[in-house]
């Protein structure tokens, strides 16, 4: 057969399962942010696993690693709109994604839940609520993050894995 591509069936209504995953990430994210915002004062820290993990309430007015946090406030709407555009694209794409691309769809669902979680913070609070503080004593500190950030990072790692190792296999299946 000359260069025949397999016919890939789209997720269609199966995308609802991936939307449910996104909703679970979103709900856990928002519940944990609410808990830590009400349980701690800004900057307050509680050791969980000394000397590597604390719960520390922090507000991020920028994006990852506080990118653009020192700007005059326009970044709130920039990142909120960007998050909404990316979320809208993922919502549409999850219905059209090949059904056999379940790894890709899982990654996108995690990104979707995280993106919406951080957009909600930006719109309601003008900042993102962070509380997971990984560090080593007072020597090294990773930027404080939240469940939404974990969903985005883990989801993107899964998407990259799919792109590198699974996407070409779908083309020849």
Automatic annotation (TrEMBL):
Recorded E.C. number(s)? 3.4.23.36
| Source superkingdom | Bacteria
Which pathway does the record list?
Answer: Protein modification; lipoprotein biosynthesis (signal peptide cleavage)
Which GO cellular component does the record give, naming just one?
plasma membrane
Q: Where are the transmembrane segments?
A: 16-36, 48-68, 74-94, 101-120, 140-161
GO terms assigned for molecular function: aspartic-type endopeptidase activity
**Could you tell me the keywords of this UniProt record?**
Aspartyl protease, Cell membrane, Hydrolase, Lipoprotein, Membrane, Protease, Transmembrane, Transmembrane helix
- This protein's record includes keyword Hydrolase: yes
Gene Ontology biological-process entries: proteolysis
Location of this chain's protein in the cell? Cell membrane
Which reaction(s) are listed as its catalytic activity?
Answer: Release of signal peptides from bacterial membrane prolipoproteins. Hydrolyzes -Xaa-Yaa-Zaa-|-(S,diacylglyceryl)Cys-, in which Xaa is hydrophobic (preferably Leu), and Yaa (Ala or Ser) and Zaa (Gly or Ala) have small, neutral side chains
What is its membrane topology? Multi-pass membrane protein
Residues in the active site? 130, 149
General function of this protein = This protein specifically catalyzes the removal of signal peptides from prolipoproteins.
Q: Which family does it belong to?
A: Belongs to the peptidase A8 family.
**What name appears for this protein in its UniProt entry?**
Lipoprotein signal peptidase
**Native source organism of the sequence:** Moraxella catarrhalis (Branhamella catarrhalis)
């Amino acid at each position: 057969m000359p260069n025949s591509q397999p016919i890939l069936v789209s997720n269609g209504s199966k995308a609802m399962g991936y939307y449910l995953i996104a909703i679970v990430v979103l709900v856990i994210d928002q519940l944990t942010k609410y808990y830590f915002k009400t349980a701690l004062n800004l900057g307050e820290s509680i050791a969980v696993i000394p000397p590597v993990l604390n719960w520390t309430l922090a507000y991020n007015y920028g994006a990852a690693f506080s990118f653009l946090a020192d700007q005059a406030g326009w970044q709130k709407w920039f990142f909120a709109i960007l998050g909404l555009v990316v979320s809208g694209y993922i919502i549409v794409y999850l219905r059209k994604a090949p059904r056999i691309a379940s790894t890709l769809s899982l990654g996108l669902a995690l990104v979707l839940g995280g993106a919406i979680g951080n957009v909600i913070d930006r719109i309601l609070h003008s900042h993102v609520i962070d509380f997971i503080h990984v560090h080593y004593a007072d020597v090294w500190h990773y930027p404080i993050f939240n469940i939404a950030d974990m969903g985005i990072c883990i989801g993107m790692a899964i998407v990259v894995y799919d792109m590198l190792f699974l996407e070409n296999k779908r083309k020849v299946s």
